[in-house]
Task: inverse folding
């Protein structure tokens, strides 16, 4: 297994409220995109990935990995909510979180918010996660095209996030892996400006992981990068 990651504040925002996790030896990877007041989003996103990492290190034996991952994300939600209530500067903070745990030829996913996970195999890229956003709900009901949804001024309004409520619904899934598969995690700083077709083309023609991630982030920068952008790319072997 090999992995690389790149996070950039973008060309408009001064602070980077994204966070990521790369623990190749554990097969554990994550991205998080914080939201809230001054610096609170940064606190929430980093707390999310740190809590999940601590909950799954060392990997507990015996229990179902899907259940363990689900529990870890719930722990992250509870910890962010607790800290948000305890400090005035952090009040109202929250974050997206998308976690990929690669174990025994399977991909276990935990997901809340509008960051995303994609699976690439044999030249084809498939999005695995569903955005928890107001605009995505409208798009699924047929009210917006894909292009309109990407450019919609309310696309950042989330219907679900970690830490904003004492309880949260976590999307989970399990996918079998084959040697050579790629798993791409990203915040919406990438997915709002780069289409899945463009991501697929870059992955198809750029086998070296670091080069592929650089191309993806550079494409975002070339298009103005109004938001933070974070990409994690993993090859299963």
Result:
């Amino acid at each position: 297994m090999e992995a690389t990651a790149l996070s950039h504040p973008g060309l408009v925002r001064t602070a980077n409220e994204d966070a990521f996790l790369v623990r190749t030896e554990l097969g554990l990877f994550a991205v998080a995109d914080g939201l809230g007041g001054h610096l609170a989003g940064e606190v929430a996103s980093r707390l999310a990935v740190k809590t999940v990492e601590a909950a799954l290190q060392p990997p507990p034996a015996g229990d179902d990995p899907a259940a363990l991952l689900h529990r870890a994300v719930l722990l992250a939600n509870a910890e962010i909510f607790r800290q948000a209530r305890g400090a005035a500067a952090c009040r109202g903070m929250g974050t997206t979180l998308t976690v990929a745990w690669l174990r025994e030829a399977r991909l276990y996913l935990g997901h809340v918010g509008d960051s995303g996970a994609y699976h690439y195999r044999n030249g084809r890229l498939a999005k695995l996660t569903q955005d928890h956003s107001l605009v995505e709900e409208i798009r699924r009901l047929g009210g917006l095209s894909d292009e309109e949804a990407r450019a919609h001024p309310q696309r950042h309004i989330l219907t679900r996030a970690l830490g904003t409520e004492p309880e949260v619904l976590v999307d989970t899934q399990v996918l079998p892996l084959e040697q050579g598969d790629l798993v791409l995690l990203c915040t919406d700083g990438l997915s709002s400006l780069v289409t899945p077709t463009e991501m697929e083309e870059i992955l198809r023609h750029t086998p070296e992981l670091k080069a592929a991630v650089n191309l993806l982030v550079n494409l975002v920068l070339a298009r103005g990068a109004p938001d933070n952008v974070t990409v994690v790319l993993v090859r299963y072997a």
In short: The chain has one domain: 2-235.
